[in-house]
Amino acid sequence: MFFVLSKTVSFLVMPFTIVFILLLCSGISKSPRWRKRLFWAGMILLFFFANEFTANEAMKAWETEPIAYRDMRPYKLGIVLTGAMIPERQPDDRIYFGRGADRVVHTVQLYKLGLIEKILVSGGSGRLVDIGEKEADDFKKAMILMGVPDSAIMVENWTRNTHESAHEVKKIVDSTGYAASDCLLITSAFHMRRSLACYEKAGLPVATFSTDFYGREGTYYPDAFLIPRVEAFILWHRLVREWVGFAAYWAAGYI
């Protein structure tokens, strides 16, 4: 039940949904006073969520910091979480990555730099309707294409969310004789706080390596403050969904 609710209810608090509901209610309200209030509330939120500066700063504040390879020590096991595939894409004779391809690319780079000895890919299907595609299997295929030997990759391909992943990975780590200090958790920077909290709750306080950064570094120009951008809405959508997920996990006792 929790899995279904987490996938279906969160859309109600997404920025675009909130703005749409406010403007819709403004259009159908019979009260002139409420029509005006709802309209301006929707317009103010529309400008706020479409503002590049506020979206980028909020995302940078939430994302965990990157680590330079030169500042890292070697680990025995790199645990990479899935969540970067485009499902049901045709033709099915290749692997399709979405925005989170850094999870695979940087994991392979860590392996080739000698910073991890083995890789454990964790994650099955996060869809409400399981169509049989397992993201961990596709991650492994991509890593092999990039030159990582099959013998260096372990796969856990049935868990549906980060909570399940943490508990299943803990079992695998214990069975293979690794300690938490031997392990490096690899996932997107915006998702790392919730991931690490889940792994610590499961009794596996691992080190972390963040990838797939959404927050942009650099100097802001006047248009970032004044001109609405669709990209800002996308950042807020990603961020609010992660906040809702974090809150839901906390309420459920997963973190």
Total of DSSP H or I helical runs spanning 4+ residues: 10
Which second-level CATH architecture of the largest domain applies?
A: 3-Layer(aba) Sandwich
Q: List low-confidence stretches.
A: none
Give a count of the beta strands, DSSP E runs of length 2 or more. 5
Strand order of the largest sheet: 3-2-1-4-5
Bin the strand percentage.
Answer: 5-15%
Helix content: 40-55%
CATH class category label of the largest domain: Alpha Beta
Overall pLDDT level:
90
Q: What gross morphology would you assign?
A: elongated
CATH topology of the largest domain: Rossmann fold
Overall tally of domains: 2
Give the SSE map.
Layout: H1 2-8, H2 15-28, H3 32-49, H4 52-62, E1 75-81, H5 102-112, E2 116-122, H6 135-145, E3 153-156, H7 162-176, E4 183-188, H8 192-201, E5 207-211, H9 222-226, H10 230-252
Parallel strand pairs: 1-2, 1-4, 2-3, 4-5
Overview of the structural elements:
49% of the residues lie in helices and 11% in strands. It has 255 residues and is an alpha/beta fold. The chain has two domains: 2-63 and 228-252, no CATH class; 69-211, 3-Layer(aba) Sandwich (Rossmann fold), CATH 3.40.50. The longest helix has 23 residues, at 230-252. It is elongated. The two termini are 18 Å apart. The mean pLDDT is 90.
Q: What is this entry, summarized?
A:
With 255 residues, this protein is of the alpha/beta class. It is built from 10 helices and 5 strands; from the N terminus they run ααααβαβαβαβαβαα. The protein has helices at residues 2-8, 15-28, 32-49, 52-62, 102-112, 135-145, 162-176, 192-201, 222-226, 230-252; strands at residues 75-81, 116-122, 153-156, 183-188, 207-211.
